[in-house]
Amino acid sequence: MISRSAGFVFNQLRQDHYLQHLDRERFIEGLANHYDQVNYLHSFRDGNGRTQRFLFDPLAAHAGWWWDWTLVTGPVNDAASRAAAEDHDLTTWQVMFAVIFTPVPYHRRPRS
């Protein structure tokens, strides 16, 4: 089911135009949704968060946003993940993302 579910999840991300051209608030809302969907797909006990960051880093940069993961602790990230998975509450991730996202520094902007 992972392959089929992943196809659905990434098709949704494509339909959302990879969160391009959104203001900060809408980008964070959309990212929380897609981050939750990808988090649901995870199939390994360890390494899922690092894999998600690897996936979403360039997506965020191409959308004009940069995140600084040093501003959040593991327990905060874990709590956000649990709230989303167990309670279908993306608010904690949205709050966490609001803390760590800033516009991409000019020297880090990806080339098109």
Per-chain topology:
Elements: H1 2-15, H2 24-41, H3 48-62, E1 65-67, H4 74-87, H5 91-100, E2 101-103
Antiparallel strand pairs: 1-2
What is the CATH C-level name?
Answer: Mainly Alpha
Oligomer: single chain
Poorly predicted segments: none
**The CATH fourth-level homologous superfamily:** Fido-like domain
- Straight-line N-to-C gap: 34 Å
Radius of gyration: 14 Å
Number of strands: 2
Number of helices: 5
Domain tally: 1
Strand-residue proportion:
5-15%
What sequence of helices (H) and strands (E) makes up the elements? HHHEHHE
Q: How would you characterize the largest beta sheet?
A: 2 strands, antiparallel
What is the CATH architecture term? Orthogonal Bundle
Helix amount, in percent? 55-70%
Lateral arrangement of strands in the main beta sheet: 1-2
Class from helix and strand fractions: mainly alpha
Any overview of this molecule?
The protein is mostly helical and about 110 residues long. It has one domain: Fic-like fold. Helices cover about 65% and strands about 5% of the residues. It has helices at about 1-15, 25-40, 50-60, 75-85, 90-100; strands spanning about 65, 100-105. Helix 1 packs antiparallel against helix 2 (about 25-40). The protein is globular. The model has no long low-confidence stretch (mean pLDDT about 90).
Task: Sum up the structure in keywords.
Fic-like fold, mainly alpha, 63% helix, two-stranded antiparallel sheet, 2 strands, 112 residues, globular
